[in-house]
Amino acid sequence: MAELKRDWTLNQGAFGRLLEWLDEGEDSKGERYLEVRRRLRLYFDRKNCLSPDDLTDETLNRIARKLEEKGSITDVSALHYCYIVAKYVFLENLRRLKAEHIGAAEDVRQDTAQGQSVKTESDHEAREKMHGCLEKCLDELPNDDRELILEYYRSEGREKIERRSELAGRLGLSKNALILRASRIRTRLEGCVRSCCGEG
Amino acid sequence: MSSADNSEYSDELLTRYLLGAVKANESERLDERSIADNELAWRLDALEHDLVDAFVRNELSGETLEQFKTFYLSSPARKAKVELARTLLNWSEERASTREMAGDKQVEHAPAASANHATGVRFGWLQWGLAAAAIVLCAFAFYLFEENNRLRKLQNEVQEQQTHLDQRLQQLEKQLAVERTMREKTTEENASAAGSGERVARMVAVLLIPPTRGLGHMATVRIAAGTETVVVRMQLESDDFPVYAATLKDPASGTAVWNDANLRARSDGQKRLVVANVPANVLKPQNYVLELSGEPAQGSPEIVSSYGLKVVLR
Q1: Cβ of B92 and A176 within 8 Å?
Q2: Contacts of B74 in chain A (CB under 8 A)
Q3: Which of B4, B63, B273, B293 is the most exposed place for a label (fewest CB within 10 A)?
Q4: Where are the domains of chain A?
Q5: Mean pLDDT of A17-40
Q6: B100 and B19 in one domain?
Q7: Does the CA dihedral B297-B302-B307-B313 come out positive or negative?
Q8: Cα–Cα distance measured from residue B116 to residue B112, given in angstroms and rounded to the nearest whole number
Q9: Rounded CA gap, B49 and B128, in Å?
């Protein structure tokens, strides 16, 4: 896959085309883009990359550039194509790190060590900030979702299982539907807290 | 939405994937599906939340705990998730105990007052008898209060069900009237068309299957002049809601061109379907998105599936 030209930047038109292509015929009002971005970020993070956000941007920029050149990409589904590009970006990043004689593992260790020293300095402050952000983000949730989260994530062990099946019964949901619903609300909450705390 | 346990991957394997402990080829397959497969992506989210919560509650042990510490906590983003989980669980427990305490105070108020009053007083048989009677009365009052609440809740539920049944009855009557009118019209028109040798289909049906792995299937419906109703049969991946609502949207503008609510799923062999009658006059020759939402007994509706529909005029 050809590397993105350095002088190419994502413009309004290309971004609009990217959103439309990701939507695959339905107008998700940007929701699909955010979900794809979140999944790509998780992918790079699970690969222990140091800058998942940068690699996610690189992936989406390449796709936008390709769409500008070709007009459309129709041979595979949008999500599958995103994975293919992400994989290339990951492998290229790995090769670049090796070429620069920086082992990814070493970077991770350094990063962890740095993280720990910062943690001791501002641990309390960060926790306070996160607490404030969580309160704010919970306030922004619809009442039903907030109550569901409260019920779903309290209790441990056997009590937790019983409470969850009682909750599912009360909401008229299957156990699996409840799991997915609670998880989606929490994922939304995590995103809100992350952006509130300034982590992108 | 898909069921969370109908995948070929076990929770145990997915948890090992989240802990970076699966073989390279398996990991690559899961990497791909974590992006391209909606169901798996949501399932991984749910499992990751459970995993992080288990760590925060000290429920992990042995190899899993070791992998969590060495792999999962090596990423700042994942560490932040652990921190958030800790904050969320604390908040959740605090809120729950605050509520329980508020509830307990109300219940305990009367006995506490009588206990304070009795302090320092020498109890004779009469006093003991009165105290016992007061306790019995309090307990009985509390029982009545609870029973009253329970009955009120039951009454509300019955009323809700009654309202729902009334609505459904009205809807069925309306549907019956429409179908009767259509049948009469069809009979009349068939009779008049018989002379000229024409025969017009008033209804067309189309089956919409749910999109899988992010690939949207676009069903095509061909409408002849004179068609009045398009019967849309939406196949469900799983039937999780008592009723459903369907909204037909123009994907270009995002506006809803038609909708219908209170639709119930029905069986067709082993499949579950929701059937809606869309008036043909709202349809133009273009692509549409038919959005199906599940309406739980309580809480807000949830989008279950989106089906692609292409309309072609014959």
Answers
A1: no
A2: 48, 108, 112
A3: B63
A4: 1-107, 122-200
A5: 89
A6: yes
A7: positive
A8: 6
A9: 55
User: Between chains, do A39 and B34 touch, taking CB under 8 Å as contact?
Assistant: yes
pLDDT at site B197: 40
Domain edge (last residue) among B137, B167, B199: B199
Q: Closest chain B residue to A187 measured between Cα atoms?
A: B45
User: Which residue from B79, B215, B240 is facing A174, i.e. has the nearest CB?
Assistant: B240
Q: Does A125 touch chain B (CB under 8 A)?
A: no
Q: What share of chain A is helix, strand, coil (3-state, %, to 5)?
A: 75, 0, 25
**Alpha-carbon span B276 to B271, nearest angstrom:** 16
On chain B, the residues whose CB falls within 8 A of the CB of A182 are 46, 49
As for how many domains chain B has, the answer is 3
- pLDDT tens figures, B153-195: 777 776 776 666 667 667 766 776 776 666 666 556 555 544 4
- In three-state secondary structure terms, B13 is helix
Q: Report the mean per-residue pLDDT for chain B.
A: 78
Q: Closest Cα of chain A to B176: distance in Å?
A: 29
- B95·A150 Cβ contact <8 A: yes
Residues in chain B closer than 8 A to A86 (CB atoms):
35
Whole domain around residue B131: which residue ranges? 122-199
CB B263 within 8 A of CB B276: yes
Query: The domain spanning residue B232 has which CATH number?
Result: 2.60.40.3350
